[in-house]
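A reminder from the course coordinator: this example appears on the midterm review sheet, so study it carefully.

Given structure:
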């Protein structure tokens, strides 16, 4: 996996554009992230995670986190689209003051989630638990 570019590079190549802050759209994304997290927590409690369903928890955790990052991006007056948009959003975590280790974890999660979605990659419960731990640790920090 190649190193994650700095956020300004995504502005320079047009993946990210400057816009007026879009608080209503951000609020909607935060609401959806909250609903998804409550559902994920309920699934963990009632069904639990195992090697057969770990990918579902990993994908949903990623979707929750990227939605919150996107909300922060919109509040900050930016929008991303096209190829590299998710990378740009992950890179924005640096602007939000997250340590590089968290940015790297989220970028790895982005890469692995693409492996699940496009290549049928299967992850085990151990990685799933790491992702859930990361979600729980960062959810409140990302929530506007």
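Designed residues:
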């Amino acid at each position: 996996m190649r190193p994650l570019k700095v956020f300004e590079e995504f502005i320079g190549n047009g993946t990210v554009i400057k816009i007026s802050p879009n608080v209503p759209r951000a609020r909607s994304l935060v609401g959806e992230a909250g609903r998804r997290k409550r559902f994920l927590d309920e699934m963990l409690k009632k069904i639990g995670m195992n090697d057969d369903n770990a990918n579902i928890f990993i994908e949903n955790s990623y979707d929750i986190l990227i939605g919150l990052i996107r909300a922060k991006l919109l509040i900050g007056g930016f929008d991303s689209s096209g190829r590299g948009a998710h990378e740009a959003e992950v890179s924005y975590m640096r602007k939000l003051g997250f340590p590089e280790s968290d940015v790297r974890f989220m970028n790895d999660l982005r890469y692995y989630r693409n492996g699940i979605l496009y290549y049928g990659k299967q992850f085990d419960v151990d990685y799933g638990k790491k992702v859930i731990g990361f979600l729980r640790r960062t959810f409140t920090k990302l929530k506007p």
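DSSP finds six helices and two strands in the chain. The chain has a mean pLDDT of 97.
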